[in-house]
Amino acid sequence: MTDSTASSSASYAAAGVDTAAGDRAVELMKAAVGRTHGPEVLGGVGGFAGLFDVSFLRDFRRPLLATSTDGVGTKVAIAQALDKHDTIGQDLVGMVVDDIVVVGARPLFMTDYIACGKVVPERIAAIVEGIARACQQTGTALVGGETAEHPGLLAADDYDVAGAAVGAVEADAVLGADRVKDGDVVLALASSGLHSNGFSLVRHILAARGIGFTDHSDDFGGVVGEALLEPTRLYTAPLLRVLQEPSLAGAVHSLSHVTGGGIAANLARVLPVGSWVEVDRSTWSPTPVFRILSGLAGTSLESSEGTWNLGIGMFAVVSPEAADAVAAAISADGIPTWRAGTVSTAARDLTGFEQGAKGVDGGAVRLVGAYAA
């Protein structure tokens, strides 16, 4: 090593960046990442860019690429408080890859980005191993990523995670509002809990009651933070199996991932203008964590319908003839699924309905009735 190289290296270390720790983190995660690779992935881990063979797209009539990007949000604050980092990766994959399947696309590959105050190899590896496990479950290759050390900008134990994925779908198989018809059945697919939305409200509620993430609570069934870290349910594989089942061809018309914005707004985005749905609250009982948090806040469950999923992680709008078969197939894959409403195009007063969302001029949705006990 020359004097100038040694000086440069020493200066970078003095600034708080540990390149050796970054290399160690890569070594720790290599096996987990490699398990997501099929023959389509070229070059392995560590290249400047990930390579994915898409020769199979030549067999498509008109291939379309679908892409999505997202993060985990302030849920990472709970992982940091508990020093438990092996589930947050599944949250990231759920937020990103389950948006890909909404249009009917099969996810192909994903990349991740982790920004941290200090690279702790074991912590970074735990995050990426969680990402890799979830990628395996969704059939997604993890082809690349970046870990960036930002001393002075982030505290030593702080980090944030984000990711992006790409999928493929035949143009004439794209799901969306244009396929939805009067009389279609709205199926609700159960969530595993909070998933990765509304954690700023969660943190506000707990702070107001003086409850810490590491506190033990009988209501939460143990350590508060561990209950809140329940990972996001993954819907991609079960939904793709339904979409690829010959006997159910064309049965699914649109899908909605219930994330930021809550229940009504996300469903409205995948309904055609002029249609409406009343989602019947009596068809399900919100997951206990939502009742506990609402009780702590002294508010109703209904008041958080625009923030939390309240037990519904995904909607499937399907033909009425196939609704029972689709629900049975998804339920058999381990995701409780039930009828929550019916699409109508009949003229009516839409006062009190949520109409469209996030720039989409969609249908109208409102929740009615009382939640099941």
UniProtKB/TrEMBL annotation:
The lineage of its organism: Bacteria, Bacillati, Actinomycetota, Actinomycetes, Micrococcales. InterPro entries: PurM-like_C_dom (IPR010918), PurM-like_C_sf (IPR036676), PurM-like_N (IPR016188), PurM-like_N_sf (IPR036921), PurM_cligase (IPR004733). Its main location: cytoplasm. It holds the Pfam family AIRS. Residues 181-344 form the PurM-like C-terminal domain. GO terms for molecular function: phosphoribosylformylglycinamidine cyclo-ligase activity. The gene is purM. It is found in: Cytoplasm. It comes from Leifsonia virtsii. Gene3D superfamilies: PurM-like C-terminal domain (3.90.650.10), PurM-like, N-terminal domain (3.30.1330.10). This is Phosphoribosylformylglycinamidine cyclo-ligase. SUPFAM superfamilies: PurM C-terminal domain-like (SSF56042), PurM N-terminal domain-like (SSF55326). It catalyses: 2-formamido-N(1)-(5-O-phospho-beta-D-ribosyl)acetamidine + ATP = 5-amino-1-(5-phospho-beta-D-ribosyl)imidazole + ADP + phosphate + H(+). Its EC number is 6.3.3.1. Belongs to the AIR synthase family. Pathway: Purine metabolism; IMP biosynthesis via de novo pathway; 5-amino-1-(5-phospho-D-ribosyl)imidazole from N(2)-formyl-N(1)-(5-phospho-D-ribosyl)glycinamide: step 2/2. The keyword Cell inner membrane does not apply. Residues 65-169 form the PurM-like N-terminal domain. PANTHER family: TRIFUNCTIONAL PURINE BIOSYNTHETIC PROTEIN ADENOSINE-3, TRIFUNCTIONAL PURINE BIOSYNTHETIC PROTEIN ADENOSINE-3-RELATED. NCBIfam families: purM (TIGR00878).
